[in-house]
User: Fold these one by one.
Assistant:
Number 1:
Amino acid sequence: MADSAQAQKLVYLVTGGCGFLGEHVVRMLLQQEPQLRELRIFDLHLGPWLEELKTGPVQVTAIQGDVTQAHEVAAAVAGAHVVIHTAGLVDVFGKTSPETIHEVNVQGTRNVIEACVQTGTRFLVYTSSMEVVGPNVKGQPFYRGNENTPYEAVHRHPYPCSKALAEQLVLEANGRKVLGGLPLVTCALRPTGIYGEGHQIMRDFYHQGLRLGGRLFRAIPASVEHGRVYVGNVAWMHVLVARELEHRAALMGGQVYFCYDNSPYKSYEDFNMEFLGPCGLRLVGTHPLLPYWLLVFLAALNVLLQWLLRPLLLYAPLLNPYTLAMANTTFTVSTDKARRHFGYEPLFSWEESRTRTIRWVQAVEGSAQ
Ligand SMILES: NC(=O)c1ccc[n+]([C@@H]2O[C@H](COP(=O)([O-])OP(=O)(O)OC[C@H]3O[C@@H](n4cnc5c(N)ncnc54)[C@H](O)[C@@H]3O)[C@@H](O)[C@H]2O)c1
Ligand SMILES: CC(C)CCC[C@@H](C)[C@H]1CC[C@H]2[C@@H]3[C@H](O)C=C4C[C@@H](O)CC[C@]4(C)[C@H]3CC[C@]12C
């Protein structure tokens, strides 16, 4: 066996390493990547939990920075072997302007690519999204499709538009010569709706249910399937891709992979009840309690209210025309491309993913009392 000094030789950078997914990627790398010598965590907002990681055998370097600032990105990337770029503005609720979403998600990604090219980093893993594909503006279903399934990917909302542009930049950068003359190897991972410990929207639904006396009211037909994937498995896919890109550059470079595991196909609300049910909430109704036209009306009303109230306060409810369309359109994946290309198998079974998520919701409940 190689001695540990020899084995620990790699420097990784995770952008957005303090976000929901980023934290899981960081922790997964520390647990599962024996070759790691230094782990750089770059984020606009650094979490206090980073301190506890600094006592381990891997050097953990926390870097407070902004992906829209090219010089900050270049300084963080210099000397890294692999960059995992998860930083992004995830906003489908109108909290931030379309310009800011574009600046962070598109220009931020351009800065990461240019930093790799200028400083000689050869491997770049990008966290894309299922929304690069759909649901599209026509609300056409994507039923258990894979990376090759034909689908009209047309978007108008700033978030999916920005993710699609950024993904395209990353894929086009595959093969560019980096400092030193070797080619850049890139690929993009497309998670469906991620769930698990730290999922803010799950927390919001939980608190909403508590406010409504332990009930949630069905808004979406149970027949609409919405793709979900456990955060631990998404993180594991990132770790595997980062590890295998060097050895399988010809096969994996410039490729996209949906993130998948054995989570069941269900509607968005029925899926959430897998966790919120055991925490004491009940989903009322076997059919949507409000007619669809009324939801469309309320969603449009929310847009108007958001606009009217903007000078006074930020009104950003969960329901708007885009989120309604997302929740109301079947979009699920069924693929084994990641297994074929880099040997991915989910690290967490559905039962374990479910148990971990329930325990986390219960802890949220405990800490709220
Ligand atoms: N949550 C999901 O269901 C989901 C699904 C598919 C894809 N994704 C993608 O996964 C990635 C992570 O999403 P998440 O759910 O963990 O979101 P998140 O908001 O929890 O994490 C994003 C992180 O990026 C950081 N960040 C934002 N702007 C930045 C900037 N200008 N400079 C540096 N850091 C910045 C944030 O501080 C945050 O820590 C995103 O790229 C998102 O598009 C998320
Ligand atoms: C009709 C309402 C009562 C229900 C609203 C649910 C809505 C907030 C949910 C439904 C689908 C969710 C999105 C989906 O899981 C996938 C993604 C991809 C990812 O890149 C970012 C998060 C996002 C957009 C989820 C956000 C919350 C949504 C819209």
Number 2:
Amino acid sequence: HEGLSSNVDSGSSSGLPSLEDGQEDHKRFYKKPDENDHVRKTCKVESGSGGTGGRSDDACPGKPRLVRLAGEQVGHVEELELVPGKTHLLKTINMKPVIFEIPNFFTSEECSHIISLAKEQGLHDSATKSTGNGKGLALRDVNGDQKLSLRELQLTLEDGYDVFLDDDDIRQMYSEIGIDLNSDGFLSRQEVNGKTIGKISTYITKLLEEQPIKKSRFSEQTWIYPDQTEDPLVQSFQDRISKLTQLPQALIDKFSYFQVVHYGKHGHYNAHHDSSFIDESTCCHLTEDKHCRICRFMTIMVYLNDVEEGGETAFPVANNETYNTHVFRQTGMMNLNSRCGDSNLKVHPQQGKAVVWYNHFINNSTGWLGDVDPFTWHGGCPVTKGQKWIMNRWISVSESPDVDLAVALP
Ligand SMILES: O=C(O)CCC(=O)C(=O)O
Ligand SMILES: [Fe+2]
């Protein structure tokens, strides 16, 4: 069976490196604003870039760079003309990580229109990770005491199945499948045998069918592909994104699809990063290629309705000076379904409002995709009354401008 002691939670074994694991960009980024060299306010769009040129900056003419809007400070407001003849306000609501709000990014008619497009297409249950067959389940004896506590079993399942259980759920499972016979709340080496993982696996698969609320993400979704629709709003959305982000048009055009998500009662999405940590050994996703990791430089999320109660977007570690990945995970803070109240920042849903943030820093030497900003952990709090509709638009970027900007568009 799986060796209990060999699965110490080292953060990186779970695919979630700690801040210490090579996270350098955040240290550079979150220093005094005047020393901040990641935000290039001086760079200009090259004339005639026509979808292939990137942005350059005065210090480095001709070299394309990604750009991040500075934010300046909480409360800062900038006027933007995202739609001809209309003014939108870009409000800085947080600096670590940098988060913006744009009220009325969509009108209420536009929101309803997008909801109808999604309904016409039909929505499907959202899944984050496949529930697997339990074969890869790595028992997480975090403290190395050769037995698994209730919390350690929860962590094991959070990794293996994307299911978030509490102590009572685990006890119930033990009693139903007949393990932990002495009911001490620990699984010792003697209590774990070759059949244990299979029994747990079967139990969890059934439980998720019966109680989807235990999933990491409880919602339904669909994707809308602008290049497959003549819809004028979808085209105008592309335009707004381009004006807002000031990123090369090629990036905006390349992955233009967006996701519409619907949460019913108890719908939620536990804390996650929208992108993946840099890993030299894997490619950034350029297509739906499952081998590559997801690289989403930026998130633009829009609330499509007013939620009667709950459904805030929570940033549990925003501004947390003592943030540490291991502590965050092990204390169950990812579980927004039950811990939303402990979040440092919560954005209230409001129809038409966009929330915008950068999942990555800019790598200072390449000018392109840098580390993930670990402070961007976020998720959707449970909807306690009514329902919630959102749309997600991610700006995907690979490690290199040569790849991203060279793509000839049809
Ligand atoms: O529902 C929310 O407020 C957050 C959704 C989210 O983070 C996502 O879909 O990636
Ligand atoms: Fe997200």
Number 3:
Amino acid sequence: MMTSLISVRKLCFSSNRNLLSCTKHLKNLTSPRCNFTTWNKQISKVLKKNKGLSIKVIQPTRGTTTDAATAPFSRQQKIIGAWLFGCAGMCFGAVILGGVTRLTESGLSMVDWQLLKDMKPPRSQQEWEEEFERYKQYPEYQHIIKERDFTLSDFKFIYYMEYGHRMWGRMIGVAFLVPAAFFLSKGWVNRSLKFRLAGNAALLGFQGFLGWYMVKSGLQQQPLPTDVPRVSQYRLAAHLGSAFILYSMFLWQGLTQFIPINNLPNTSQMRRLRIMAHSIKGLTFVTAISGAFVAGLDAGLTYNSWPKMADRWIPSDLLAFSPTWKNFFENPTTVQFDHRHLAESTVLLIAAFWYMSRKAPLPPRMRMAVNALLGMGLLQASLGISTLLMYVPTPLAATHQSGSLVLLSFAVWLTHEFRRLPK
Ligand code: HEM
């Protein structure tokens, strides 16, 4: 039976930052502004003493001024935030390492996948020779490498590249799971972050699976003897896309531990800008995925001119494949055409956003995000054009790939600044 009612006003909702202030009956909750864990402990004590007590949580109306923006973040949140940023940084590293592995044609050097056994590379001369012999059975060696003067030491180089990428992936797993278990055992993680961390763990496992699923496609015999043995562009795009999502999730959750919600006016101008910011993030992601198709098909090695493709705006073989839909994923011309125009649209949208937001009352940190986004958008497009004009040199292509992640980071940051108080 309910004996009395406690009214509590929720001041802040960012995931690990539920600061609460008590408005009635709660003399026992000594501090009016305490962090989530302390508050939880205190409220449990009160509930134990007063059997049947119920609590009503009153949320503030959107857009009203609360002291949430100025409330300090707890030490625990900062530690969790630093850890999440660390995980995001490690994902970033994995993307760069994966890109360089692909660009140095090292990705198919390890011809099987075992969680623990893979961790021990060949040691003796005999083990290396056995591993090299195994590699020689697979299509990449049979159709491409065999023609070259390829020695055991060349094999060691490509093997260590792939080994490094796989070990880095495992290290992300450890760097995520061990601290997560610690924070959970300490009760530092609130309910909403618990769900998010479970999502991260699932995606991390899925990312490893996709990596092997992608490599497997490059180890199979190609249908035609003229086909170049390479991984499926669909699987490459899925592997890259899921890495970008995982990275963005870590980054978003990390930002939430440090950056308070802005108290933005609820005007139509602000709503328009918010929608545009989310569209930029979405379009950047789609452009990046289309870039993975360019990389997967080596489509950067055709039509090495800009802005026209050869001397035409619309190349003659744009829809050469049948059925038509196949062109968008399998025809190098169409795939490159799409990537160019998606990229140009992304940069135009960013420029339009920058222009439209000039007179909006944005806080200084938001203004910084907008400027950074515009600068990076222009730089990324220049990197892409240079990569194309110079026939995809490895250092430039790898920089272009990392640039896409930096651009996505600024878009994530900007949309994070537009975060609303949860209902
Ligand atoms: C918003 C701008 C852009 C973004 C976000 C972006 C993103 C990407 C990504 C993620 C890749 C895949 C890299 C990999 O997996 O190794 C890629 C590849 C590529 N992009 Fe872009 N790109 C942009 C602009 C451009 C532009 C304007 C061009 C040229 C007109 C271009 C040309 C290329 C080429 C040639 C590749 C293939 C490189 C390779 O084979 O490794 N990109 N892009």
Number 4:
Amino acid sequence: MNSKPLLTVTNLSLADSKRTLFQEINFDVSQGEVLAIMGPSGIGKSMLSKAIAGFLPSDVMVDGSVQLNDSEVGQLPMLQRSQTQRPAVIFQDALKALNPLATVEQQLSLALTVNKTRLNATNRDAVTELLAQLGLAEPDSILALYPSQLSGGQRQRICIAISLLGSANLVIADEPTSALDPITENEILNLFRNSIQQRCIGGILITHDLSAALACDKLLVIADSTMVAYGEPTQAIRQSQHPFCQQLEQLLS
Ligand SMILES: Nc1ncnc2c1ncn2[C@@H]1O[C@H](COP(=O)(O)OP(=O)(O)OP(=O)(O)O)[C@@H](O)[C@H]1O
């Protein structure tokens, strides 16, 4: 894709009151592109996604630029952002992300219309078609269920549907499949990537799974508080001299 990036992150640094989490992070995401982010546990991958989405803890300071849809959002909390300044976020724990007291229909309706909790005849067809595309059998009956009545894989598919129904043109998924079995994990990651590409929006996948990262368009690796690899996944890993990437390289077939 040669279009102007949806998201451009330039010289981004994050620090809390005690230490720098990372510094000098640079990357971009274009339409139809999925960027994977990998790195050792605790390096700040989730904090990076929170910086992009605008819900960093108050004691974490941001330096550098986050340009989303041509506007600077690095210092803007989520609640002060307009619709085009808000990416959709899919979290690791779908049960916590969904409202336990609302049915699937109510949550999907809210994603579509902001203030309605029932689907109308027109959008019901579009929603059930999306649920079917996301691998949910019998989508009509699923609409009436509460999150606790769904399996982990079904809940995460609903979270993907919610992220795709809103107006966001960037979707960030933070380890969305870490609680799922490997077959469901693979299916959901494929659905995530395909949905991004088909809709020509942008995606970020934070993952510890090398095969999931290799299937993305680009890979950013953060280690030792900075970026140590960036680019086409296999090439980026092979070109990096950092020990974390050298360990990843040993896992490449
Ligand atoms: N509320 C907070 N305020 C300040 N610093 C925090 C807060 N929560 C986490 N941190 C710090 O941010 C660091 C990065 O955490 P983060 O969850 O972003 O790492 P991660 O790379 O996503 O880890 P993992 O791969 O294990 O999910 C943590 O080591 C912690 O020190």
